[in-house]
Amino acid sequence: MKTKFKNLTEFTQLFNQEVKCRKYFEAIRFKKGDYCPHCGHSKILRFSDGKRYRCVKCKKDFTIKTGTIFGESKLPLQKWFIAIYLLTTSKKGISSIELSEQCGVSQKTAWFMDHRIREAMKQNDGKLFGTVEVDETYLGGKHNRKQGFKNKIPVMGMTERKGKIKAFQIESRETHIIFNEIKKNIDPSAFIMTDEASVYKKLPRFGYRRGGVKHSQKQWVKGEIHTNSIESFWALFKRGYHGTYHSMSRKHLQRYIDEFVFRFNARTTEMDEKFMEIVQEISKRGNLSYNGLTGKVAPKINYEKRQTIKKTQANKSALQTSSWRNRALKV
Question: pTM for this one?
């Protein structure tokens, strides 16, 4: 099966049928051999409809979506593939309203699809090397001189010069938080470039080489020292924030950051390779339920209480009926 495409026209021709989408996803998921998502057994049976499978060992049925981020979604893979394509190729992202119009689903469904795809865009745990620019920005809330940035959400970013970028939401700009993130994500041999923030002046104490520029004095570049690379990422991220999404909640902010980081890191990657990378991650990661995403707990049903209520209602209706009969007899 052909898997290469360079533009939207070729993409739609490649995945113009649900069968083709299913075969593509099956080839990626079972690349290293067939297996059951329930017990892991290597022998499975395929139903004649091509949509279902059965494990030889545990005898459980499953679909190609079982045990993946798609879960047991009833949406066809064609719509999922369109959503993945749009989210990976739109430089400033795509809102759930626009995605719902493009895929022909409700806004709530599109929002859920968006976040499940972002789950597959999570950043890895590797460290950055060489020349690394570090900076932070703030989102949301109103800026007040008295309160400073207390009402805003801090986001920290770091990028290798002409390389990969990492960004994440942090609790605050306190020294121990900044340094913990630097230790976790930047190799000690790296040369770190920052602005004039006082927190970064302590970096040499921890064995890091550091160079800085003074933005307050309109010093943007000092030889090879600057933070223009990370600043350009913040500019792109904020264009998406203000122009596409308009608002990002604290609960889901990291998912939006992961989305922009993925696209930025894959900016030189071919379109079909980006698409395949996301589909591979979707096949590896487990199901993400709506309640798990929103943090809502499904209500527990108290069957004993329900039966008691039904009995009470039945007794009331019986009393009402008998009262009407008594009145009729008196008359």
Answer: 0.83
- Is residue 240 classed as helix, strand or coil in its secondary structure? helix
Residue 88: count of CB within 10 angstroms of its CB: 21
DSSP structure string for 116-132: HHHHTT----PPB-SEE
Q: For 8-42, write each residue's pLDDT tens digit.
A: 999 999 999 999 999 999 999 999 999 999 999 99
- Which residues have CB under 8 Å from 78's CB, separation 6+? 15, 17, 18, 21
> Quick one: pLDDT band at residue 312, thresholds 50, 70, 90?
low
CA dist 258 and 264 (Å) reads 10
pLDDT of res. 49 = 87
Q: Determine whether domain 131-248 maps to CATH 3.40.50.150.
A: no
Start and end residues for every CATH 3.30.420.10 domain found in the chain = 131-248
148's torsion region: left (phi>0), alpha (psi -120 to 50) or beta?
Answer: left
